[in-house]
Amino acid sequence: MKQLYVNGNWIAGSGSTTTRSPSDRSEVVGEYTSAGAAEAELAIAAAHGAAARWALSGVQQRADALDAIGTEIIARKAELGTLLAREEGKTLPEAIGEAARAGAIFKFFAQEALRIPGQRLASVRPDIEVDITREPVGVVGIIAPWNFPIAIPAWKIAPALAYGNCVVFKPADLVPGCGWALAEIISRAGLPAGVFNLAMGPGRVVGEAMLNDARVNAISFTGSSATGERVLAACARRRAKVQLEMGGKNPLVVLADADMDVAVNAAVQGSYFSTGQRCTASSRLIVDEQVYPAFVEAMARRLGELKVGHALEAGIDIGPVVDNAQLEQDLRYIEMGKAEGARLVCGGERVERATEGYFLTPALFADCDPSMRHTREEIFGPVASVIPAKGYEHALALANDTEFGLTAGICTSSLKHATHFKRHAKAGMVMVNLPTAGVDYHVPFGGTKGSSYGAREQGSNAVEFFTTVKTSYTGS
């Protein structure tokens, strides 16, 4: 049974979890110990005890450790990707790509550790110098989701360590294996005891312990909007720093002048790859009525060509839904869409394969009204809704008519409309002639409105969350 990693040691927990493949329910992926309140306390205490020393560590030490982690992840990307595909259900090529990205993230922040920014300015008073420096926050609690179980922990853990923070990492309950594999690599990177700690376990135990402990100076959370609200409230009560990435109901606008092949490719990739289980998925396809029939027809044709099946099988486009609870949620929204009067063009059916898994054909709804619940609420599955628009201005208004604001896309050959959309779309990230899902690791990630809260993740902007600013004055 795989154990917790606390204060430089592998230790047993108070409970256990057995994970099974969503592609084959008869396959046991692994058995993992889970932390109880006592083990969560040990992890927090270990991080707190190591924080002062690690904050003053040399940047070369941090850079070397992060680079070593990234190098090993990349060297083992096929192995780690296979584990990811088995545990979460992402197709093997996508899973290997995610593992490679995690390695690249660690190597990127290895270099960022060597260029932590600062300033020296002249004071408005004579003979005084002003230094503006950045210091680590302290202990960072990291609560990661199940849908990107290697990449998202990487883009939180790597900057936390690069900027001199200590970490308590809680992976999602559905994917402890990916979190454990990442922690095992980190455990051999030469970090001092207590700097990095793995506390697998349920959110109601481990997550609550981190939220309510004054020794945890900051929380970085990615997950559902409802849980994010609770995280925000708990951090606000004790004035802990908080960073939230939550839901999305992302629009992809297709104008009449769009290249139809480009638009369909962007819609299919953005809406359905990774089984639609991405916060950046384009679940609202807003299409100019002039090309609406042709777009719906082309989408149905393309979706009919996609292969749904076991995540490790060659040639599969869409793997299983992650678990039965998520599958049932997807099916409820599909039935809801039909009951609301939307037209189910294709898909939305649970299908059987050679192994018992949570397989669902990609669902496309047409003739949708923007007030329908399935067009407004995040489904987090392979379901997309097509909404007709009367020209660009109407399409833009529909795109912005949501409580979320993570990413937005537009397919058009018009530079005028593309430029206007980039400025006026109410989203943290905008894509032109590209899928809404798919981002680079060296630039900021985050949204507006109900999608995100706090400083941006990834890229050099990560310094904003993982450090505090100090202003020092020196007189002659």
TrEMBL record:
Highest taxon of source: Bacteria
Ranges that cross the membrane: none
Residues forming the catalytic site: E245
Keyword Oxidoreductase: yes
Domain Aldehyde dehydrogenase, residue spans: 10-471
Keywords: Oxidoreductase
MF annotations from Gene Ontology: oxidoreductase activity, acting on the aldehyde or oxo group of donors, NAD or NADP as acceptor
Similarity comment: Belongs to the aldehyde dehydrogenase family.
Name of the protein described by the UniProt record: Aldehyde dehydrogenase family protein
